[in-house]
Design a protein that fits this description.
alpha+beta, Alpha-Beta Plaits, 2 domains, 6-stranded mixed β-sheet, two-stranded antiparallel ribbon, 8 strands, elongated, EC 2.7.7.65, GGDEF domain-containing protein
């Protein structure tokens, strides 16, 4: 499964921006000609031509490149400026302010809830301030009309806010379901693959610890699977605390993978030994029971050209040696030629 399929926010914003570029591109050209020839608003007309050009450029870029944040920001600011300026130059009876009703939707879909609420509020204040200073208030001469106008905008703003909040929360929940182990809260194999292949740029000092709890079946057989599950939760929490800035992944029943960059081999082995020792010397308090578990750890350093699969296989070989030669040990592959250095507990 490709994790990119879970990134619905980027896909949504890219599609929204593309269609907004088409819409505003053509509409801007039409109103540019109208404002230059008929209304004699040359400045506004030329700005609308510029907006149309930006829309065409952005649409082309989105067909060949990934969405960039600045594109959404510029689109929102550009469209807002053109509409606010048009409202400032034209009489209220021309109805330029009506375009403001579409902007909260645009803000929330392209920039999210945080910026959506700020920009929607700012637009409401700006447009209101411009309208009340007009010499001719038509058609805003009645209180009913003005109130209806204001409440329509506020309603669209509120709906956009609720929709975007619900959509973002659903997207986050879906992503967590796909990327996190539901029992321990640690990341899973899919997350590990994405981190290694996409997010991790510099692998030159990367180390992989493959950790397996020794004789864990005995814990389940003696205390039951419910207690065993709680032991796994406590171990995952302990690993996240000890590794601090590293990444903890649950890759099997009682097997965890840890990825972290270290400045030296000695630092990596020291951390691996710290983890082994901490587990060995910690009694986990599970429902009033003091349960002790130990772990065997295989450690490898990343070498240029290693795929994640190859990386894990090399670590698994070291883990096998740690278990074969007594368990509760750390074994390290120091080079690509299987030169092992055991760290014996």
């Amino acid at each position: 499964m490709d994790i990119a399929a879970l990134s619905s926010t980027k896909s949504l914003r890219r599609n929204v921006l593309k269609w907004m570029c088409l819409c505003f591109g053509f509409v801007s050209l039409f109103f540019a000609a109208f404002n230059i020839i008929v209304n004699n608003f040359a400045l506004l007309g030329y700005l609308e031509i510029a907006l149309s050009v930006f829309c065409a450029y952005t649409y082309y870029r989105l067909n060949t490149h990934a969405l960039e944040v600045w594109q959404s920001v510029v689109m929102c600011i550009f469209v807002t400026f053109v509409i606010v300026l048009g409202n400032y130059l034209a009489k209220p009876i021309n109805g330029v302010y009506v375009w403001s009703f579409a902007l909260p939707i645009l803000y929330y879909l392209l920039l999210g809830k945080r910026y959506g609420i700020v920009l929607s509020a700012l637009l409401f204040v700006l447009q209101g301030a411009i309208l009340v200073t007009k010499s001719s208030q038509l058609p805003l001469t009645t209180l009913n009309f003005s109130l209806n106008l204001a409440f329509v905008y506020i309603s669209i703003w509120a709906i956009s806010h609720v929709f975007e909040g619900s959509r973002a929360l659903s997207s986050k929940r879906l992503k967590n379901l796909a990327l996190l182990d539901p029992l321990t809260g640690a990341a899973n194999r899919l997350s590990m693959n994405h981190y290694f292949e996409v997010e991790l740029r510099d692998k030159s000092q990367l180390y992989l610890f493959l950790l397996d709890l020794d004789y864990f079946k005995q814990v389940n057989d003696t205390y039951g699977h419910a207690v065993g599950d709680k032991v796994l939760i406590e171990v995952a929490t302990l690993l996240r605390v000890l590794l601090a800035k590293g990444y903890v992944f649950r890759v099997g029943g009682e097997e965890f993978a840890l990825l972290h960059s270290f400045t030296s081999q000695n630092d990596a082995l020291t951390m691996a030994e710290t983890i082994r020792s901490k587990l060995n010397n910690t009694a986990l308090d599970i429902d009033g029971l003091n349960i002790k578990v130990t772990a065997s750890i295989g450690v490898v350093k990343y070498h240029q050209g290693d795929t994640l699969e190859k990386f894990v296989i090399k670590a698994d070989k070291q883990l096998y040696k740690a278990k074969e030669f007594g368990r509760n040990k750390v074994y390290f592959q120091s080079s690509a030629h299987l030169n092992e250095k055991p760290q014996v507990a």
